[in-house]
Amino acid sequence: MSLLRTSAVRQILKPRVNALAVVPVRAQQVSRSKSDARPISPHVTIYKFPIAALTSITHRATGVGMSVGAVAMASLALTGSCDIPSYVHSFQTAAPFLVPVAKGIVGFPLVYHYLAGLRHLYWDKTADHIDIKSGIVSSQAIVAASVAITLALAFVTLD
Length: 159
What we know:
Blueprint: H1 2-13, H2 25-36, H3 51-79, H4 84-94, H5 99-126, H6 132-154
Helix pairs in contact: 3-5, 5-6
């Protein structure tokens, strides 16, 4: 038993010579993948994300952005030194041509996150249409509907 332990310890402590040590890291990966017959995983900058992945990332980003915005606005309102309705009115009178742009910037995350959330609720409830083709079609529909609804809301004025 002690012989087995000492040979195992020797194998662990034995210095290993790496023949690829002088080759740059990228070349090591290429030569390693050729020897293993496995492809190298593509880097994020050259990988084209599918639209379903992009809409999922956008759904998460709009949720985080709205949460940060809500906490910031609530914090400003709770300090008592910020009158948000007066700032909105000042912006409307100072730059009326930018009001639809500002509405779009605020409205798109709300509309998009709501529609993408409805899709996820549908998927969770029914487990239907969860395939590649349906994912692409529903992603395109959500983006198109979000843009259309946001543009419609951006030019609506409530007086």
